[in-house]
Amino acid sequence: MKLRFLGTSGYGITLTRNLPSIIIDGKILIDCGEGCLKSLFKFDYPLDQIQAIFVSHVHPDHILGLISLLFKWAFYTKNKNFKEIRMSPKIYVPEGYKSAIEQIIQVTFCPFENVNYQIRLIELPYIHENPLSLNFNTDKYSIDWIESIHHPKCYSFLFNGRLFYSGDSAPNKEFHNFIPAGTVIIHEASFDDSQKSLAHKLMHSTPQDAAMLASISKASQLILTHLPDLTEIEEEGFLKEAKKKFSNISVAHDGDLLSID
């Protein structure tokens, strides 16, 4: 798998960071924060190759870019035929939140029905026996999920047993048995370690929290995202204490590319 960070901020859009979004193999989007569409253009990802979108939760920093992306597909695609029934990629959301996305579409007066564009929203049940299997030509994906500690309900995703994405979450002991050894962990770190109490109160994590999870889970690598506004110098301090618990840790930046065997 090859993944690109399209947005890495948990602080709002900054000069260097868009809001959360990751793309896997040019086919699967994880979250769709503001700036996602422009990043897809910037890094030359064809929109018609995107097959699925996984929404961790419905906080605005994770989903508002979805409206712009759907508008692009529905109205601004070259050689469009408004008479044909066209469908969005499948959009997977936590159980109970399909109606929330539908309401956002309604209150923003998105006239998708006028151009025969159908939005495909699918709820992922919290209780499930097997991972979701997706096949796109020769690419095969197995996606499992677990609920994080967050409000509103947020899912954390495991892709092909090799890549774990936390979404937003306070430290969660349920992750320990869910994450296989050797996994690459992409974990939120919304606050620095000096703000741990506030982070946990708001159902978020710090670098030390993520490093402890990586150590217990025997992860191969830990990458922090959903970040506060950090300068290059501040990044060093941001990771200092966490590196004492897990050494192979880094901060994600918009545009970073990662390959996972």
From TrEMBL:
Keywords: Hydrolase. Gene3D superfamilies: Ribonuclease Z/Hydroxyacylglutathione hydrolase-like. The keyword Hydrolase applies. Its EC number is 3.1.26.11. InterPro entries: RibonucZ/Hydroxyglut_hydro. The keyword Hydrolase applies. GO terms for molecular function: 3'-tRNA processing endoribonuclease activity. Signal peptide: none annotated. This is Ribonuclease Z. The lineage of its organism: Archaea, Promethearchaeati, Promethearchaeota, Promethearchaeia, Promethearchaeales.
